[in-house]
Specification:
The protein has helices spanning about 10-15, 25-35, 85-95, 140-160, 175-190, 195-205, 250-260, 275-280, 285-295, 305-330, 335-340, 345-355; strands at about 15, 45-50, 60-65, 65-70, 105-110, 120-125, 215-220, 230, 235-240, 245-250. With about 350 residues, it is α+β, with helices and mostly antiparallel strands. The protein folds into 2 domains: about 10-125, 2-Layer Sandwich (Phosphorylase Kinase, domain 1); about 140-355, Aminoglycoside phosphotransferase (APH), C-terminal lobe (Aminoglycoside 3'-phosphotransferase, Chain: A, domain 2), CATH 3.90.1200.10. It has a 6-stranded antiparallel β-sheet, with helices on one face. The longest helix is centred in the C-terminal third of the chain and has 25 residues, at about 305-330. It is globular. The two termini are about 25 Å apart.
Length: about 350
């Protein structure tokens, strides 16, 4: 098994590059669309592409009227239900009026003739992205405060009344874990490239051991440190990004996905398992669980190993989709190939937690 090589994620993913090849957009058509659909837009515009992001290609659009962000579906053959930019736009537009930290939403385009795929446009949130969970250069107090802010923001999302923000039909009621396991099993099968015994065992065991769902909320689906914009100079989440996998579901699935941060090694990315967390000031998983439970009125979180096994299986299935797109030539990021090598590692890690949970 190949172990993915650690990278300097902060350097690799921060900033923009000039779009090349299939990443280039039709500036004339895009300018016309902006003029017709984005209130207050004044051209001309210029386009650059953010380095980060594995799924939906993301661009910075600069114009005299201000900076914007454009997210589009990838070009080419896509897996069913993947890359749902329309859902990203819908949930952020609904949350924007609640005070929850999302970027302002300006418009959704479902006409492929403009740039070749669906896309939406939002404002550019002021702040910075933290790609490395070790937060190099920060003090222990700063790290601790940022991790607390991350937990508190997720708890705030799970407290939002979905009916009050017109998201009551954003997902199906009940049986969230059953539906998700079925979905990601199907997605994995569609993207499968070689036999992986750990994934086979997980796909057999997880559906037989579903926990009871007692609450329903908006779930982000990919909530981790590098999908957040933090305010400059303050431990505050300025915007939550990348809502592609959001739906209505069990908030514990969302929170325990964040908990996989403590189950994965760092490698220059979001994991903290192999770090000296005490020296760095990063809170331990027990503290994070206690903080979330206190904020959401829970007595505790039993059987966390089941939830970690589920989330790591789900993550392996997502990364397998990226691996398939590398092979098919439709992966957006130059780092997608390195990421694709993580699939067997994630499957093995998921199985380790499944065994602890009684598999």
């Amino acid at each position: 098994m190949t172990t993915p090589v650690a990278i300097d994620a902060q350097a690799a993913f921060t900033g923009t590059v000039a779009p090349q090849g299939d990443d280039r957009l039709d500036e004339a058509r895009l300018t016309r669309w902006f003029g017709d659909n984005v209130a207050g837009f004044t051209g001309p515009l210029s386009i650059s592409k953010f380095k980060g992001g594995q799924s939906n290609p993301t661009y910075r659009i600069d114009a005299p009227s201000g900076p914007y962000v454009l997210r589009r579906k990838p070009f080419g053959k896509l897996l069913p239900s993947a890359h749902a930019v329309d859902r990203e736009y819908t949930v952020q537009a609904a949350l924007a009026g609640t005070g929850f930290p999302v970027a302002p939403q300006y418009g959704l385009c479902t006409d492929d003739s403009v740039i070749g795929s669906w896309f939406y446009v939002m404002g550019l949130a002021e702040g910075h992205t933290i790609w490395d969970g070790a937060m190099p250069g920060a003090t222990p107090d700063e790290r601790r405060a940022h991790y607390h802010a991350m937990v508190d923001t997720l708890a705030a999302l799970h407290a939002i009344d979905v009916e009050a923000v017109n998201l009551g039909s954003y997902g199906k009621p009940g049986n969230y874990f059953g539906r998700q396991i079925d979905r990601w099993t199907r997605q994995y099968r569609l993207a499968e490239t070689e036999p992986m015994p750990d994934m086979e065992r997980l796909m057999a065991w997880l559906p037989q051991t579903l926990p009871e769902q007692t609450r329903t909320s908006v779930v982000h689906g990919d909530y981790r440190i590098d999908n957040l914009i933090f305010a400059h100079g303050a431990p505050r989440v300025a915007a939550v990004l990348d809502w592609e996998l959001s739906t209505l579901g069990d908030p514990l699935a969302d929170f325990t996905y964040l908990c996989t941060t403590w189950a994965q090694d760092n490698g220059g990315r979001s994991g903290v398992r192999d770090l000296d967390r005490k020296a760095l000031g990063i809170p331990e998983l027990d503290e994070v669980v206690a903080r979330y439970c206190a904020a959401t009125g829970r007595d505790g979180l039993p059987d966390i190993d089941w939830y970690l096994a589920y989330n790591l299986f789900r993550l392996a299935s997502i990364v397998q989709g990226i691996k398939r797109r590398v092979i098919d030539g439709t992966a957006s990021s130059v780092h997608a190939k390195d990421m694709a090598e993580k699939v067997p590692l994630l499957g093995r890690l998921a199985m380790e937690h499944a065994i602890r949970a009684g598999a």
